[in-house]
Design goal:
It is built from 16 helices and 16 strands. The protein has 420 residues and is of the alpha/beta class. Strands 1, 2, 3, 4, 5, 6, 7, 8 and 9 form a 9-stranded mixed sheet that branches. It has a 7-stranded mixed sheet with strand order 14-13-10-11-12-15-16, with helices on both faces. Helix 4 packs across helix 5 and helix 9 packs across helix 10.
Length: 420
């Protein structure tokens, strides 16, 4: 007997002719995640699911921990840690198979998972009809073993508290008793590339994760109050936020961009529209970066009506500052729903830390309504050297690269652009 993992796809069965491409991407993401955890385990896609063969020298406890790590990957409906009996060794498909090993295992699992006053059921799936017994007959036989060799007393076939699964296939038999629910969605990297405007709050990292759940590879751009030294940048709250998101979405780049030049350009002016002017500036800087990183859309954590800058009028003014598509996955969420999702993703503690958000520093009393033509006039009057501001801002940017929770590279974007 060996250990295995069964991975059940989420929406991939609905993809028709493109299904193979999505499955291939999910398989690669699982392999990459395992590699990041220092495991080189075979990952095999067969029919409607993926199997991961655990190495012989790995303990049951370690394998179960890895199952929970894989459950964080988008594209997975559920997965299970399974006990695997190879058909070549056990020969369960003979006319009169020896099933003692299966019964012994299920009796032991029944004892381990017993809970007083709870009910159980057995589910047998006979994929290979050469197996001598029909599914229902084998279910009754296993249930009898459980009742005789454990403290279980109640059988409930409709709504059991505990289910024991037996999957009989041509290459062997899988036994498992716990389905871990995944995040669902689509495999990261299967639907495109996006760039998320990352702030210091709860919203934008959750928005980025929601896009990752829909299959987007996501990068981040964050506007900082000053120039960040590379030496101690890993302790920065924003860096730790991007690192956590990368634990489930894999390859993530974070661009730390100082907004010093824009701030200096407006320092002596008392403009009511300074916040929306700044948001338009952020959109344009991000748009300038997008071709370099092959990004197809911008993502923000905007939530309609949550703060002054997130009114329909101000969102429209931001939209008109760029030709890039702007996506807002949190637009209709309640704040408490966002915070709850942040907690589920392991982001809550880092997001709640104090942080001087750039938008709050730019303006204390922002306008709730704006018109793009008014903003364009202000930009032409006070920010005549606009492209220079963008170029100088990007020249001082820092790029950090994460791979499944590990910071693997950090450099100035200026060196990247010039290939140094």
């Amino acid at each position: 007997m060996r250990y295995r993992m069964i991975v059940q796809f989420a929406e991939l069965s609905l993809k028709g002719k493109n299904r193979h491409r999505f499955i291939k991407k999910l398989r690669k993401n699982i392999k990459d995640k395992l590699k990041a955890l220092d495991y080189e385990w075979p990952v095999i896609a067969i029919h409607d699911r993926i199997y991961v063969n655990v190495a012989d020298n790995v303990s049951r406890e370690t394998a179960k921990q890895v199952v929970h790590e894989l459950a964080r990957l988008p594209g997975i409906a559920w997965l299970s840690f399974v006990y695997w009996f190879n058909e070549q060794h056990y020969q369960f498909l003979l006319n009169k198979p020896e099933l003692t090993a299966l019964h012994d295992l299920l009796a032991r699992l029944a004892r381990e998972h017993y809970q007083p006053d709870h009910s159980f059921a057995v589910r047998v799936k006979r994929r290979d009809k050469r197996f001598a017994m029909k599914s229902q007959d084998f279910e009754r036989e296993i249930a009898t073993t459980i009742l005789q060799h454990s403290d279980w007393q109640k059988v409930n076939l409709s709504q059991p508290d505990q289910t024991f699964y037996v999957d009989i296939a041509s290459d062997g038999v899988s036994v498992h008793c716990e389905k871990i629910i995944g995040v669902g969605g689509l495999p990261v990297g299967s639907t495109g590339q996006v760039l998320t405007l990352l702030s210091g709050g709860f919203d934008s990292p959750v928005a980025a994760w929601l896009m990752a759940k829909r299959g987007c590879q996501t990068d981040f751009i964050h506007f900082t109050a000053g120039h960040q030294p590379l030496a101690d940048i890993e302790q920065d709250k924003i860096v730790r936020t991007a690192k956590i998101v990368s634990e489930s979405s894999g390859f993530v780049r974070l661009f730390m961009v100082p907004y010093t030049y824009f701030d200096l350009a407006l320092m002596e002016l008392d403009l009511d529209y300074d916040l929306i002017l700044f948001r338009r500036f952020m959109a344009r800087v991000a748009t300038e970066l997008m071709p370099l990183i092959e990004s197809q859309a911008l993502v923000t954590g905007d939530n309609l009506g949550q703060v002054a800058s997130q009114t329909l009028e101000n969102m429209e003014s931001m939209n008109k500052s760029t030709d890039a598509m702007i996506l807002r996955p949190l637009l209709s969420y309640n704040k408490q729903d966002i915070i709850a999702l942040s907690a589920d993703l392991g982001l809550f503690e880092v997001c709640r830390e104090p942080h001087k958000d750039c938008c709050a520093l730019i303006s204390k009393n922002p306008r709730t309504r704006s018109r793009s033509y008014v903003l364009e006039n202000l930009e032409q009057t006070h920010l005549a050297n606009y492209q220079d501001l963008i170029n100088e801002t990007l020249a001082d940017a820092i790029e950090l690269t994460f791979y499944f929770g590990q910071l693997v590279n950090k450099q100035s974007i200026d060196r990247r652009i010039h290939g140094q």
